[in-house]
Amino acid sequence: MNNTKEIITLGGGCFWCVEAVFQQIKGVEKIISGYTGGTVPGVPTYREICSGLTGHAEVIQMTFDTDVISLEDILIIFFTSHDPTTLNRQGADRGTQYRSVIYYENEKQKKIAETVIEKIKPYFDDEIVTEVSALETFFEAEDYHQDYYENNKTQGYCTAVISPKLAKLRQMHADKLK
Question: Which residues constitute the domain of residue 110?
């Protein structure tokens, strides 16, 4: 990977939603839905994650080109595409697996994440509860979770939850869309 490519891992509720948002963004080259942040040994499954007992979060791991989009811009989009003020919940999705979290790869990313959080605080009425943690082990989710929205646009969850997020994205960040 050359110097203009970076990887960041983000959780903002259901990974299907976060993936669908960032698939629309210029400079985002690859997204893998998966799990991280848990304490149970072994490779977790979706069923185990959904129990809320493993400690893992549903996340996306994204490769992006910093010549096209900055990490700061990625994080601004992240914070405007989910509610970073609700602990372990996004809409009807409840549990630690749906927490708002930024898993950084290095100290530079950590500092950028902390700076963005400070910068956006005034725009929220409630405290931002987004966790900022070092990425340890990332587990790729099962194949049927990859490109979920693209493959299931007419499914109920997609039309009720993801499509409105994408409409908001187009309204707020049109200049960043592919």
Answer: 5-176
pLDDT digits (tens, 9 = 90+) for 39-66: 888 899 999 999 988 999 999 999 999 9
Q: State the catalytic residues.
A: 14
Three-class SS of 72-137: HHHHHHHHHCCCCCCCCEECCEECHHHCEEEEECCHHHHHHHHHHHHHHHHHCCCCCCCEEEECCC
3-class DSSP state of 50: helix
What are the backbone angles phi and psi of residue 168, rounded to the nearest 5°?
-65, -40
The 10 Å Cβ neighbour count of residue 126 is: 10
C-alpha–C-alpha distance, residues 77 and 29, integer Å? 16
pLDDT range class, residue 2, cuts 50, 70, 90: low
Q: What is the CATH number of the domain that holds 162?
A: 3.30.1060.10
Q: Which residues contact 147 (CB under 8 A, 6 or more apart)?
A: 19, 23
Structural domains counted in the chain: 1
